[in-house]
Amino acid sequence: MENSATLRTWLDDMNLSHPLVIAGPCSAETEEQVLKIAHELKGTDVNYYRAGIWKPRTRPGNFEGVGALGLKWLQKVKEETGLKTATEVANKAHVELALEHDVDLLWIGARSTVSPFIIQEIADALHGTDKIVLVKNPVNPDLSLWLGGIERLYSSDIKNLGVIHRGFSTYEKSKYRNNPEWQLAIELQNKFPDLPLILDPSHITGKRDMIFDVSQTALDLNYDGLMIETHTDPDNAWSDAAQQVTPDSLKQIMRDLKIRKETDQEADYNNKLTNCRAQIDVIDNALIEMLGKRMKVSDQIGELKKQRNVAVLQSKRWNEILGNMVLEGDQVGLSEEFILRIFKAIHQESINHQQKIVQQ
């Protein structure tokens, strides 16, 4: 993507006064449902109306979408509301049908992004298209895999490209449905600043009450837009009910979000400062999460020491840790004094945890 500056052209041409907004139901369920939601989103900040026609599901038996019939409903959305349309494609047949029904924006889902074969098939089917194509991050936090999918599409003369950050799967329990792993998206943004970056807070959070906060973090990090699942009756949605918001809730979210896209010099300074602070917030949250995990391991060690009647403080082991961390810290520009202060505090907290267990 040597001339990646061309990738932003489609977004710049829209000349938006607010971030790009893609909204609509997770799944197209019925014609009535699709049109009702669309009419409620008409005249709002929504730029593209999304609806899942084909729903990739890991386990068989779950609702997998209404299929090509739903594309006709999207055509009616465009006719009746003027909203541009968007849907997910996962193979050549999907692409051909979506193009036949004049869908304006196509995105490739996380399950598809992990497969070079699927991406190449889609890229070949889309060769030379002027449609907007967005690539969701792969299921696992692998930046090279994400970039590989984008490069395959770019090599097929698809210039109107962008990416969607929808979070990453993890075996560990988290407050998120899919961990955001913000640093990976920030790295992508730093490498390719002209590649439009859209956040999917619905799939990251899995909970509608978290969507606003995650969306605000994205805007503070200079994301270009949001994809938010929206349903008139989310509790009874046929898929992903917990993460969908009502059209009224979406409108309120759009009103409440602080959008920092001013162009004067002072505003540019404030925007950059806000972006840096947002990155620090992301890293600080990750530090707290990692420290919490470290203390859980300390608790396990405390249980083992209690069973064997072993002293909590093991000076030899502690000195080994401290020596290693001083060397590691030096490699990344951290002073010995700083490392000693930080790890002494961490060590003391670990001792406190273990003492509570041993004394029980």
Automatic annotation (TrEMBL):
Q: Where is the Chorismate mutase domain?
A: 267-358
Task: Name the domain of life this protein comes from.
Answer: Bacteria
Q: Please provide the Gene Ontology terms (biological process) for this protein.
A: chorismate metabolic process
GO MF assignments: chorismate mutase activity; transferase activity
Gene3D superfamilies in the record: Aldolase class I, Chorismate mutase
Q: Which UniProt keywords apply?
A: Transferase
Which Enzyme Commission numbers does its entry carry? Answer: 5.4.99.5
Pfam families listed in its UniProt record: CM_2 (PF01817), DAHP_synth_1 (PF00793)
Annotated InterPro entries: Aldolase_TIM, Chorismate_II_sf, Class-I_DAHP_synthase, CM_dom_sf, CM_II_prokaryot, DAHP1/KDSA
Q: What is this protein called?
A: chorismate mutase
